[in-house]
Each structure stands twice: as C-alpha cells, then as structure tokens.
Amino acid sequence: MRFGVFADVHFCSREDDGERFFSQSKRKLEACLNRFQKAKADFVVCLGDLIDGSEDSEELKAWLEELQTVIRGSGLPFYMCPGNHDRGGLPDADLLALLPGVPAGGYGSFEAEGIHFVLLDSNYQKDGRRRTAAVKWDELYLDEQQLQWLEMDLEQTDKPAVIFVHANLDSRLLEGERDPHVVVNHRQVRAVLEKSGKVSLVLQGHCHSGALTVQRGISYVTLKALVEGERQIPGLMVDCDPQKEEYRLEFFDGAETDDGETE
C-alpha cells in the first residue's frame, strides 16, 4: 500500500507576497495530485491549510468549492486534518463540513491494509475551545478531550499506527525557545504516542520550511509548504509494509518544467 501527502496549499484570492505564491496554489495542487495518480497512490492526505482563511463566508465557500472540484477530479480517496488557516466567517460545524476529507468533529481514525491511521486537530486554545481568529498561530494545543480519545483509540487497535496532524508534535527549539510551530502541550501528546508503543511515524505541516526529527523511536516528518516558491511542488509518497512495520518515504520537491511535469 502507498499513499501521498502534501501540506499548506493556502489557496485564496490574495496577491503573491514574494514567498507565498497564492496565485499558483491551485495549479500546484493539481500537479501534485496528478503525480500521486501516476504513482498509483491508494489515498491522499492533506496536512492542513488547504485555504488561507477568510472572514467572508461566501468567499470561503467559493474557494472550498473550487478546490473540491480539483480533488474530486483526481479520483483519489482524500483525507485531511484541519490547519489553523482553514478557518473563517462560518460556524465551526459548517466549516468542518465543507473541508474535504476532514472527520466529523475535526479528528478521527481509519484503517487500511493492516495500518491504523489517525487524523488529529491541532486547532485548540489553552481553555479547550477551538481556535478563533484572535488566537495566535504559535499558541496551538490539542485539547484534553482529544488527548483522551487518542489514548483510547490507540489502545483499541492492534495495528501499527501513523499520525497525521497540522501543527508539530516533536520537541524543537528556535533561539532557545519552543519552536512556535510546535503545539504548546507537545510533551503531553508525545507521552500518549510513546505509551501506546504503536506509533513510529508522525506526518505534519505548518512549518513551511519542513523539518525532520526522531525522538524516542518515532519519526516526525514535517512537509514543506506547497504555497512556497513560484514553481516548487513539494510532496511525499509513503510505501507501507505493515508486517515489518516499515515505511519508505520518497520526497519530491522538483520544479515544474515547461510542459507541466515535475523534474
């Protein structure tokens, strides 16, 4: 079994800012999905920030409908964990229903070919409420209820598990302080993962430059953002061997050629 992963599309109608090429996001998403099709991926996962957020509910709906057409057109089963930019001027339940492939309630799990896959929602604030526009991107949490669910979910499976999440769970420092892309209660989350003994791979987004760490036997792989760079189309293919509990990761970050292919 193999699956494709990408992160941080940030689709919107804003002007490019020199680093984030919003105007290219849809085209780059199409190219990324096309690559997954050619690689015969069994399913695809978006690690959040599919859109860049809007307080205009009609604009937000239009963006999501446009991307849903692209995603459905790929014919690939699609899953997603919500990112901090996947917010806007809609009630939370309505917004989650519009985001393609997001589990009801924002987090959940599924199984395929002998592997347990978990989609988490890192968009909570300290008091346990879901993130609002007023909450900073660098002060995100997994709420206590979700942590309890995660512990129970991992206890109930007898299969190796892979975690998908937007904000980061590994312990990383930036200038001596917690890397702002890492959730505030990262130690609590990792304690649950480590206690289960079933998790060896965590795939995450949010940090646009990407990152890779291995902590207590768990690989934390942070994907580069699709929105960054005018022609770069970063993504990841993962081949799974559940019998050996092994995963082979193939990164691609090639620039597009003139015919729309990636190098």
Structure, explained:
The protein is of the alpha/beta class. The protein has one domain: Metallo-dependent phosphatases (Purple Acid Phosphatase, chain A, domain 2). Helix content is 24%, strand content 23%. It has helices spanning 25-38, 57-74, 92-98, 144-156, 186-196, and strands at 2-6, 43-46, 78-80, 108-112, 115-119, 161-165, 173-174, 177-178, 199-204, 211-215, 218-222, 235-241, 246-252. The strands form three sheets. It has a six-stranded mixed beta sheet, covered by helices on one side. Helix 4 links the parallel strand 5 and strand 6. Helix 1 (25-38) runs parallel beside helix 2 (57-74) and helix 4 packs parallel to helix 5. The mean pLDDT is 92. One of its GO terms (molecular function) is hydrolase activity. This is Metallophosphoesterase. Residues 1-209 form the Calcineurin-like phosphoesterase domain. InterPro entries: Calcineurin-like_PHP (IPR004843), Metallo-depent_PP-like (IPR029052), STPP_CPPED1 (IPR051918).
